[in-house]
Fold:
Amino acid sequence: MRQSNTYIIVFSAVLTVILGGLLSVTSVGLKPMQDMQVALDTQKKILGAVMDLQPTDDIPAIYESRVESLVVDANGEEVTEVEGEPVVAEKVNIASQFDKDPKDRLYPVYEFRGDDDKFEAYILPIYGKGLWDDIWGYIALASDLKTIKGVVFDHKGETPGLGARITTIEVQERFKGKNIYNDVGELVAVRMMKGESGDPSIYNDNEVDGMSGATITAKGVNNMIANYLGYYQPYLKKVESGAQASKATVEKPQTGV
Amino acid sequence: MSTEVADKPVKIEEKSEDLFSKRRRKIVSDPLNEDNPITVQVLGICSALAVTTQLSPTLIMAISVVFVVVFSNLIISLIRNMVPGRVRIIVQLAVIATLVTLVDQVLKAYFYDAWKVLSVFVGLIITNCIVMGRLEAFAMGNKPYDSVLDGLGSGFGYAWVILAVAFFRELFGSGAIFGFKVFEAVGIENFPTNGLMVSPVGAFMILGIIIWVQRSLTGYTER
Structure:
């Protein structure tokens, strides 16, 4: 069967309109649900840095009652709006901020509160480069602003079984309780060492056991943590000097997410 | 009047085929075993290797492929007499791509965790040779109902193989089935999980074994 060119063109045009229309309708219709899922995923990641979540947990409810967010700039000043638009910490895209100069980036800060509404931890997003592609995560600092309360990492394309192990609880547990300052009070962050001994006792407060076969991913993790702790330093210093006393006791205002 | 009477018996003679006639059962059952898209035709290997680390994403992938192949077969079969022969491959591709995008969007909205794992591979269903192969080889020349059966057969033929691969990979690679730690449940603590099974190499090995077993059972040889 050989059709005329006109028939082929008309057929193609009609098909395109039908299929295109179908896709547009679906895309628009599912958008709210998808946005909700993305938001839920962000909340899950943030909370994952400080607590072990169960699949049955009502994450939006926990997040609503426990987490308060704000956005700061590189000087540690709070940012409430950019070019007239209000800034919401959860909506700040860390990946696209990462492409900017560190001085121009927005830095979300999440304050986590315990059951008794007492301030428990700052959860800070971190972002960097692994071996093959981007890596990112959250690091939670306890209320002394020195001790790591927990970390959570994710990655785009690290080697399965090697670098991809940064997503496992086993590796993330190693960071718990480590100190980001050295004995003389300098910010040294926490470094994942080369080689994997399996013996946590041989490392000091600023070191964690490495991942065998994933030295470059570990280096990426080290740089990511060190860089971002550096970026957040102005804000953390500001909190430490003076503001902390009032901040820790102030009533938690209700925030909508 | 007389012509109408003469016409009628001709129409009655066209007796409709049984809904599950032998021929139709064969359309469904052939791809499950003797003409399996993965183990016999060796199509769709890339996704069979990539998504089968764990059972639950594999199950969603399998359902997605069944959905896409059934409905693209149906749609192409319905419009098969309208599709201009010279652009038929593009038409097939457009239909497949639309269905795949629908699946991708729905997964993103309702199964976000699975979507994060699968999204790249769901997109790659478009280039999955099984789907296009069925459209070109079957749906373009057969009626809608037969095409749906053919899609079901091919889809499930693909599904059982990747689920079998995923079962062994998750069992030996993570010591679990659907995330449930079976070895701990039966009292074997410290089950030595095999890292090879988590990497794509493990899928090659298991797929090879499945192909070997299946071909020695059916007696199929490459010609």
Notes: Chain A touches chain B through 23 residues (CB under 8 Å).
